[in-house]
Design goal:
- This protein has about 675 residues and is an alpha+beta fold.
- The chain folds into two domains: about 450 residues, no CATH class; about 130 residues, Jelly Rolls (Sandwich).
- About 50% of the residues lie in helices and about 15% in strands.
- It has 23 helices and 24 strands.
- It has a six-stranded antiparallel sheet with strand order 19-18-17-11-24-23, with no helix packed on it. Strands 12, 13, 14, 15, 16 and 22 form a six-stranded antiparallel sheet that branches. Strands 7-8-9-10 form a four-stranded mixed sheet, with helices on one face.
- The longest helix has about 35 residues.
- This is Glycosyltransferase RgtA/B/C/D-like domain-containing protein.
């Protein structure tokens, strides 16, 4: 039975962790090609890079990365290292059917690597601490709890909510770094060529995925090579120092060369050349205030407070009940931040992993002559160094806590087995109590990250998914007098500011907005009553054009009605770049037709249609200020109620669009 405890405990933990992760990854839908946003922006970057590799170049087509592109000597480069793009190359050689749709599959594979290496590392650490002692029931149960907390109750589950490059790269980085740490311990204990090859392979993949993680593990591996050379790791290991040097030095040199080819620097990229810097005044101010960079020790206090504050979480009386803090992250010590979002803390969202990591400190500091115990120190050091980049970075977001996961996993593993050794000596009621508390903390981490992930997925996608999310809030926690009903406010126009999670009704349910709590896009549209213009042909139709409405979004566009003398009409969309014409359709004297405008918030556009005639085109519905902060646009109809246009023989009337039913229910409960 004892021989079965290891696989059973591992499987139990992975089932819980995997269930949470894949629920977040698929967002409770069976769609393996899901992207973070409807238009697929940032979910196709690695596909674009892979295509460039197939064409024999590193740069990508101009404009293909939007604001994320770096323009150097007239060429556009992606700042992400290439490993996730290289994974796509074999698929793209076979088929192009999945271009731009491989991110979710890549993130699923990344979790499998992460979960496998986390499990292997956990049991490897036990062998270092407890050698080959039989696994007890307590240890098996504790291991299952730990694996569930690491693979499903950490920020990786939150990362799964958005299948785009910003989260994909972290999932790969975490799994590959943990794999490198595992093989580092193995190689220290058994410095064979096979182990060194595995170590070098994982280190290379790490260095080509995320610079901070790659440099951290490679430098530690080189440091271990120096330790071997001194003979302090044992005379039998001294001759093996070259294996470690090659395993750490080769990946590091490869990453340096790749970055230097693009940006002429061993690890940094020129932020002044990024498209985002050109369009965002605040980014330019941040670079100016920080000496041309947004990295440095001036950000350490800010990162320390935001990433480790015990109250870095928020509990509310409505679904999802657990969420990110209401306010965006704040700067401390006079730091001038580039960007800052609502940011959950490690202590609040991953409490079990944090506490176990703290418990590891005495074990790691204790003097020992056993190389098995000594091997844990560079392993933990590598994990800690990974977080150095984000600690000194002037950009604060919850996804960046992914950089701490390797340290939490390896140090937490040490703390787990050390704690088990102590608790084993207690009486059974006390042992059960401690195990129960650990399981509760693990499940809390699972719930907190899973619930926050679902809210993030809906808010980012918008459209029907955001409406479904708000409707779910209504079903689970709505009703008159409820905490959810108190989030509903109403006014004639949308205010500039509001409270986090506020649902704001404009007019008589003309539109319903959600306040995100973030500084850069405080309001997102949940649903909106369509604009409908009824056109009646009052006499003989005459040739002419009449302005119907103007949309104020990223660009100003107007819709016009054009008529002819031979009973035809169509809708035109005009902008500064030209005119787009919808299809002609026939109309007759005394007949009536309609023109409708409905907003697709998942696209950021308003769709114009005519009946008859059908689809006409789109009008931008998102406004951007000088810093590219987004705000819902507006649509101004050119007349108030009814207006006659005798020169064309028509009368225009604003008709009542179908009212948003969700908004009406929410407003009724709030009154």
């Amino acid at each position: 039975m004892r021989q079965r405890r290891v696989p059973l405990a591992t499987a139990a933990g992975l089932v819980v962790g995997g269930l949470a992760y894949f629920l977040a990854l698929f967002d409770y839908r069976l769609d393996p090609t899901r992207t973070a946003v409807r238009l697929g922006y940032a979910s196709n970057f690695f596909d674009i890079q892979a295509q460039s590799f197939l064409e024999g170049r590193i740069d990508v087509p101009a404009g293909s990365l939007g604001i994320e592109g770096f323009i150097v000597d007239g060429k556009t480069y992606m700042y992400f290292p290439p490993f996730p793009a290289l994974l796509r190359v074999p698929i793209m050689l076979v088929t192009r059917a999945f271009d731009g749709q491989l991110t979710l599959a890549s993130m699923a594979l990344a979790w499998l690597v992460f979960a496998t290496m986390t499990s292997l590392l956990l049991w490897q650490v036990r062998r270092c601490i407890s050698w080959d002692l039989p696994v007890s029931r307590l240890e098996a149960a504790a291991a299952a709890v730990f694996i569930a907390a690491a693979t499903g109750g950490s920020v990786v589950t939150f990362d799964a909510s958005l299948p785009w490059v910003y989260h994909e790269v972290y999932l790969w980085a975490v799994g590959l770094v943990i794999g490198t740490i595992y093989w580092l311990i193995r190689t220290i204990l058994e410095p064979t060529r096979t182990n060194a090859i595995w170590l070098g392979g994982f280190a290379l993949a790490s260095a080509l995925t995320r610079t901070t993680g790659g440099w951290a593990v490679c430098l530690v591996i080189v440091g271990v090579a120096g330790w071997f050379l001194t003979g302090r790791a044992g005379a039998e290991r001294r001759a093996r120092w070259r294996l470690l040097l090659v395993a750490g030095g080769t990946p590091l040199l490869t990453a340096i060369v790749y970055n230097a080819v693009k940006f002429n620097h061993p690890f940094l990229f020129p932020l002044q050349n990024q498209v985002w810097t050109q369009v965002n005044a605040h980014r330019r101010e941040a670079l100016g205030a920080n000496g041309g960079s947004i990295t440095g020790p001036q950000f350490l206090l800010t990162s320390l407070v935001n990433y480790f504050r015990p109250d870095g979480i928020r509990f509310v009386g409505y679904f999802p009940w657990i969420t990110l803090p209401a306010e965006p992250a704040r700067a401390y010590g006079g730091a001038f931040l580039d960007q800052y979002y609502r940011t959950g803390s490690i202590t609040a969202f991953m409490p079990l992993l944090f506490l176990l990591s703290v418990a590891a400190v005495p074990v790691l500091l204790r003097r020992t002559s056993r190389v098995e115990r000594q091997a844990l120190r560079p392993a933990v050091l590598a994990g800690v160094l990974v977080s150095g980049g984000v600690m000194a970075y002037g950009y604060v977001a919850y996804r960046y806590t992914s950089e701490f996961v390797p340290a939490l996993v390896v140090a937490g593993s040490v703390g787990l087995w050390a704690s088990c050794a102590v608790v084993e000596r207690w009486r059974r009621p006390a042992r059960d109590l401690v195990l129960g508390l650990g399981a509760a903390l693990a499940l809390f981490g699972v719930a907190a990250n899973l619930l926050t992930a679902h809210a993030m997925a809906a808010t980012t996608w918008r459209g029907d998914q955001l409406r479904e999310f708000v409707a779910l809030q209504e079903r689970t926690s709505g009703g008159k007098g409820s905490a959810f009903s108190r989030t509903v406010k109403q006014s004639a126009t949308l205010p500039a500011d509001g409270e986090t999670d506020e649902l704001h009704v404009v007019g008589n349910c003309d539109a319903l907005y959600l306040n995100t709590g973030d500084a850069y896009e405080p309001w997102v549209l949940v649903e909106r009553r369509p604009d409908v213009i009824e056109v009646r042909v009052t006499g003989r139709l005459r040739a002419g054009k009449t302005l119907l409405l103007t949309a104020h979004g990223s660009t100003k566009r107007s819709a016009w009605l054009e008529t002819t003398n031979n009973h035809f009409a169509r809708v035109l969309i005009t902008s500064s770049t030209g005119t787009y014409a919808g299809p002609w359709f026939g109309v007759y004297a005394k007949s009536t037709f309609r023109i409708g405008v409905s907003v697709r918030s998942d696209l950021g556009f308003a769709e114009v249609t005519s009946t008859p005639g059908g689809f006409v085109g789109y009008l931008p519905f998102i406004e951007w200020d000088k810093d590219w902060n987004a705000r819902p646009g507006r649509i101004d109809v050119a007349f108030s109620r009814t207006t006659a246009v005798p020169r064309q023989g028509i009368t225009l009337t604003r008709a009542a669009g179908v009212p948003p039913t969700l908004c009406q229910r929410l407003l009724a409960d709030a009154r």
